[in-house]
Amino acid sequence: MPEEPADDAPSFRKQPVSFVRRSGRMSDAQERAWSELAPRYAFDVPRDVASTSVHPDARLIPAEVYGRTAPLVVEIGSGQGHAIVSAAAARPDVDFLAVEVFRAGLARTMLDADRAGVRNLRLVEANAPEVLERLLPEGAADEVWVFFPDPWHKSRHNKRRLVKEGFGATAARALRDGGLLRLATDWEDYALQMREVLDAEPEFERAFDGGEDAWAPRFDGRAMTAFERKGIAKGREIRDLTYRRVARG
Questions:
Q1: 18 near 162, Cβ under 8 Å?
Q2: What is the rounded CA–CA span in Å between residue 128 and residue 235?
C-alpha cells in the first residue's frame, strides 16, 4: 500500500516517530464502529501539522472527559485493545486511556468495549510522546503502560524505538509522584535497552527487587493476549519492568 508522507519529515516533527502509518481502508464493521462509537469513546484531538500530532494548546482534562475524579491508567500503543478493555472491565473504579495511531485498532477497541459494557475507557488517536508531553496535564496519570511496543529490531531502525534516551522525562511528566511505569517486551535486546535507559533516568527508581540484571515479575493486571502467546510460542521470553516516579523536587 502507498505510504503517507513520513511523519518525521522536517516540516512535521524534529524526532522520528515509532510508527509508520500506511493508507488503507477499515472493514465495514470497523467503519460503523468508528461512526457510531467514536462520539462515546474517542477524544477529538486538536492537531498541529501531522495527522497524528497534538496541537501545543490541546489539553485532555480527565475529570471533564470521564465525568469524575478517579485514578487514570494510560496505555501507549494499545493495538486492538485486548489488554486495556480487559483491564477496564475488571476495574470500573479506574479510568483508562488508550493511545494508538492505527484507526482500525481503535475501532476494534471500541467494538469490544461496547460489547463488554465498558464506560471507563477513552481513546486517543495520536503520537504517544505528544500525548504525554502536551495533551495530558502534568501528573495526571497514576500508571503508564507500554506493552510490546514495536521493537524496530533492525539496527538501522533502532532510532525509531519509543523507549530510548529521553523517554523517561516524557513519561515522568505525565505521571504523578509515586506513579508507575510498566513495560513488557518479547525482544531481549529491546528489554535490555529499556532497562538501561530507565535505570539511568533520574525521574524513576526501580519498583522491583533483585540485582542489576533482574527483571520485574509479570504484571498480573496484564491480560494474556494472542500477541503475547505468539511470542511465547516462538520461544521468546517475556520480560517485564516496573519503575516508580520519584517525587518532584
A1: yes
A2: 29
Scanning 75-151, the segments in alpha helix (DSSP H) are 82-90, 103-115, 128-130
Cell numbers 495527522 label which residue? 51
DSSP E strands in 60-173: the ranges are 72-76, 95-100, 121-125, 141-147
For residue 45, give the C-alpha cell.
Answer: 484531538
pLDDT at 28: 86
242 dihedral zone (left: phi>0; alpha: psi -120 to 50; beta): beta
Please give the model's pTM, rounded to 2 decimal places: 0.89
Which residues share a beta bridge with 205?
A: 244
Q: Which of 8, 48, 142, 150 is catalytic?
A: 150
Residue 220: how many CB atoms within 10 A of its CB?
6
Query: Is 21:4 a contact under the CB 8 Å cutoff?
Result: yes
Our answer to whether residue 150 is catalytic in this structure is yes
Residue with cell 481502508: 25
Q: What angle do CA 186, 187, 190 make, to 5 degrees?
A: 125
Q: Sign (positive/negative) of CA torsion 75, 148, 101, 121?
A: negative
Beta bridge partners of 125: 100
Nearest alpha-carbon partner for 118 in 147, 90, 77, 83: 90
The model's pLDDT over 185-243, given as tens digits with 9 standing for 90+, comes to 999 999 999 999 999 999 999 999 999 999 999 999 999 988 899 889 999 999 999 99
